[in-house]
């Protein structure tokens, strides 16, 4: 076990202030790459080593099982292995399983793995015919309503300013959610949000439950506090009761889940909530070169809650971020692949390189280009393009059409098939699964448009099948392909951000100042993943011939 002095020895001045502030409300405003995980784990371990904390009385909360696992591993290495590190859901579910038999009686209702089947059944009871993407988008609406602590009546009013799937009116969306709740109750099941709601309800309504919970955990640490939802904040407040021994850690500039109910308001308002709060700013970046840090600072300058990062004194300046434009998506992807191949030839390990992009469908051209360049890659946080349900279905239907249809222009046949699956010339306004499906089908339409005028349907299908069959998961050291959302919390020596153009970054459906600001923060997350090298690329022409793009408004602010 490390001694208290050893635990403080490796910390910078601000991290040390955080580690030594063990009691009362503490807020760590921790910028990207500033060692926040190191700061909070050393703080907890220091509290245990000095006897201020009993390990069993500390709860470290975060948002993903991966992050919770990392916290547990680091704490064990620092001699604080008895500390609980869990997600909000895991902690709430544990309490629910313990108290339900005492308060309600019997066993806890079965937990839903997915809302899809229940929603589909609920839609049938209302005689609504909804496709899978629409059901997925409505599942997201249910999650947003619940974490925002809205009743169905309140949601009815709020939904009038939200963008719903095109096939549903507000009234039908409310009816569907009410039917979903009824079916779920009849089957005696709970969804993930119900776990938080039920746990909060028990603590709030049962004094003995509140007393036991508050006796179990005395000290709380909450990571990624900018991502907390109103429901999670309420549950945390119930866990705390009248006590104020809570340390929150976050960065308002990395709030990228507002669409799911997350808000940085609790982080930015922490000092106002607790008059005696210790607020520590972690701004020394240990990850990136000064050139990359400068670009990140320029992008966020003047934004609410933005921190001003600075590099460690001995950091090499590094090359300035490179920006390049290409004729179309395919040429952009090939240029990225060639650049990566050159980096690998110069000695950079493939696993130290990443290509980041805004939406999943952008991976198709990148996968093909990296494959052609014999660069190993792995997709993170998303389904491979040719494994998407709508893409598989489209290829199957095109294969069938290639047998029965001859002499018809390729463009017409492909567009007819894709229209039967829901593709339209105009993109849906809303974000979500409906838009994702359209993007996937539109990418196939783009491939058809790129084919030569003499290409037959059979040749086109054969090309699609060859692309599909050639994409196997690599089992070797590989370049990471990831959406900007799924890259959060990760870092690489070299980062390529593809598609830095209007319509992709910010995305077309980002309407209004708040939505545009979220896109800005998403770009910031991408930039700050890079340690040594950052390349930004975009294509001047879109998926369809004649569709012109403009460089992202954000890029001009980096200079």
Give a quick precis of the structure.
The protein is α/β, with parallel strands linked by helices and 559 residues long. The protein has 22 helices and 16 strands.
Please describe the structure with a list of short key phrases separated by commas or semicolons.
559 residues; alpha/beta; 6-stranded parallel sheet; globular
Number of helices: 22
Distance between the termini: 48 Å
Average pLDDT works out at 89
Helix content: 40-55%
β-sheet strand percentage = 5-15%
Structural class: alpha/beta
Radius of gyration: 25 Å
Question: Order of strands across the biggest sheet?
Answer: 3-2-6-7-1-8
Tell me about the biggest sheet? 6 strands, parallel
Low-pLDDT runs:
472-476
- So what's the overall shape? globular
**Strand runs, count:** 16
What would your notes on this structure say?
The protein has 22 helices and 16 strands. The chain has 559 residues and is an alpha/beta fold. It has a six-stranded parallel sheet with strand order 3-2-6-7-1-8. Strands 11-16-15-12-14-13 form a six-stranded parallel sheet. Strands 4-5 form a two-stranded parallel sheet. α7 (132-147) runs antiparallel to α20 and α10 (192-205) packs across α11. It is globular. The two termini are 48 Å apart.
